[in-house]
Every structure is written in structure tokens, then in C-alpha cells.
Automatic annotation (TrEMBL):
Keyword terms of this UniProt record: Dioxygenase, Iron, Oxidoreductase
Listed name of the protein: 2-oxoadipate dioxygenase/decarboxylase
Lineage: Bacteria, Pseudomonadati, Pseudomonadota, Gammaproteobacteria, Alteromonadales
EC class name: oxidoreductase
A GO molecular-function annotation: dioxygenase activity
Organism of this sequence: Pseudidiomarina sediminum
Cofactor(s) needed: Fe(2+)
Pfam families the record matches: HGLS (PF07063)
Family, as annotated: Belongs to the 2-oxoadipate dioxygenase/decarboxylase family.
Gene3D superfamilies registered for this protein in UniProt: 3.10.180.50
EC number: 1.13.11.93
């Protein structure tokens, strides 16, 4: 792995744990001091020039990543792609983008005004992938986005950075099952995303996933500060499709629920059901 690529992932990780202090605790609880191998890192964006999925993907293609899978999320009005590298030590990359034109004129106007503030040259730099927001937004615009799309609101508050890292459970020496990982996390005090059940997917689709509910952090909006959900940690266990051949793709039905790990309202609605 080149030094630039290593530095890129170090910087990406450092930005992520600054917003997600519980990620460091996850490593302590699951790794007990040993290194944790990540299955993938996920990014979010808007389908607006100059920050379209295809443009952001170039940073990874320049590192040697190849596009491998396409996904569509009708209800959330999102599409996504995943990318893989021939070096098995590099995490897969999952990038989604919001189909902005499928929302109200008001949402479109807010998003376009945010994106217009981005310097197109900045997008060409690899550092863009952990550069955060490039705009000011009021708390009322944030709330307005939240009514239509939790994803749009998250993007407006946090911008361009890792939305989550994902522990590769197959490579955790002390754990056999994802259930055991979840149990250990709950005992340590973490709240898991229960949308669609704690474990999304199954051996039949060759992938099981779970995630924590996002940490909360103080965001400075143009008019006030607010404490809102930031980033989360995910856990993935992959199964063999053929002898010695682990499934490397994603499962749209499961991913659809993982997106809700930043949604405080989904979590609340869920808690009221119990
Ligand atoms: C991505 C959710 C999907 C997965 O592994 O299926 C996902 C997001 O929340 O941005 O990460
Ligand atoms: Ni993920």
C-alpha cells in the first residue's frame, strides 16, 4: 500500500473518531488492544455537480479501486455503488447519493444553495473526502430537510467524511458470530440499531450486518448550536458463496435499514414499540 493511501485512510479515520468517540471504545471492547480490520467505509453525497458519486469515486479509482456493485433505494430516493481493491488489506468503499430532484422544490433549493458554496477545485483533492461541510446552514433549514430526508439533513450538518467504518467480524479472533459481537456491545452499554431487527441479512444472502446508533455531537448552525446524531459503527460478517470465496457485495434490503443508524426519530419510534 502506498504511503499516500495509508495516510489518506489514517486521516479519514482520525476525522471520524473525532466525531464518533464511541468508535475508539468499540475497538477496545472488540479488539482488546489488537488491530481491528475494517470491511468497508461508507460515504454520502448529493447527485449535484461538483460532488456527484462518480466524481467522488475518482479518488478511489485513482488508488486502484474498481466499481463492483450498484444499489437502489426507492423509498429513501438514493442510489449507491461499492468499490473494491485488489489489496485485501484495504477496506471496500460504499458511496451513496441522494436523488435531489425527486424531493420538494424547497428541499432542492436548500441543497442547491449548499452545494453552490463548494469550490470545485477542492473536490479534486483527496482531502475532500474528510473535509466536512463547505457551507453555513441555519438550524431551521436543517429541521426543514429533516422533515423530508434524514439523509439530506445529515449531509447538511456533516458534509463530506466517513459516515461509518465497519468491523470485519470474520477477522475478529475472539468472536464466532455477529450475535456474540452484538451481545458484547450491548453489555458494554452501546445502543444498537434495531430497525429491521438487530441483525440485518442472513447466511442465505451471504452477509449479516448490525450497527450502533450514531453518537451525538454539538453542531454549530448559523443561528444556534444543536446536539444531533453524527456517525456510527457497523459490524459485518460475510459468508462463502463457494469454497474459500466470501461474498464481497452488499445487500440492498439490509443497507436500507443501516441508513437509519443516524435517524434519532426512527430509533425513538422503535423504542416506543417495545
Ligand atoms: C450507508 C448505509 C448502507 C451498508 O453497509 O449496507 C451501508 C449509510 O448509512 O450511509 O453502509
Ligand atoms: Ni455500511
Amino acid at each position: 500500500m502506498s504511503q499516500q493511501v495509508e495516510q489518506f485512510f489514517d486521516n479519514l479515520w482520525n476525522d471520524y473518531i473525532a466525531l464518533t468517540p464511541s468508535a475508539a471504545k468499540v475497538h477496545q471492547v472488540l479488539g482488546q488492544g489488537r488491530d481491528i480490520i475494517n470491511d468497508h467505509v461508507a460515504f454520502r453525497t448529493f447527485n449535484q455537480s461538483p460532488v456527484r458519486l462518480e466524481t467522488l469515486a475518482k479518488h478511489f479509482e485513482n488508488m486502484g479501486y474498481k466499481a463492483c456493485g450498484d444499489y437502489k433505494f426507492e423509498a429513501k430516493r438514493l442510489v449507491a455503488k461499492h468499490f473494491e481493491h485488489s489489496n485485501p488489506n484495504l477496506p471496500k468503499i460504499f458511496i451513496s447519493e441522494l436523488l435531489v430532484e425527486e424531493f420538494s422544490d424547497e428541499l432542492q433549493a436548500i441543497v442547491k444553495q449548499l452545494v453552490a458554496q463548494i469550490d470545485a477545485n477542492a473536490v479534486q483533492q483527496p482531502e475532500f473526502m474528510y473535509s466536512g461541510t463547505h457551507w453555513q446552514i441555519s438550524s431551521s433549514d436543517y429541521e426543514r430537510l429533516l422533515e423530508e430526508s434524514e439523509y439530506a439533513a445529515w449531509m447538511a450538518a456533516f458534509g463530506f467524511r466517513a459516515n461509518h467504518f465497519t468491523v470485519n467480524v470474520n477477522e475478529l479472533p475472539d468472536f464466532e458470530s455477529l450475535e456474540q459481537v452484538n451481545q458484547t456491545l450491548k453489555t458494554a452499554g452501546f445502543r444498537l440499531n434495531t430497525s429491521g431487527g438487530e441483525i440485518k441479512g442472513s447466511p442465505e444472502v451471504f452477509l449479516e450486518q448490525s450497527s450502533t446508533m450514531a453518537d451525538h455531537t454539538t453542531v454549530r448552525f448559523s443561528d444556534m448550536e444543536k446536539v444531533i446524531p453524527s456517525c456510527f459503527y457497523e459490524f459485518a460478517k460475510r459468508y462463502e458463496m463457494a469454497p474459500n470465496q466470501l461474498y464481497t457485495g452488499f445487500v440492498a434490503a439490509s443497507a436500507d435499514k443501516i441508513f437509519e443508524s443516524t435517524d434519532a426519530r426512527a430509533a425513538q419510534a422503535d423504542a416506543q414499540k417495545d
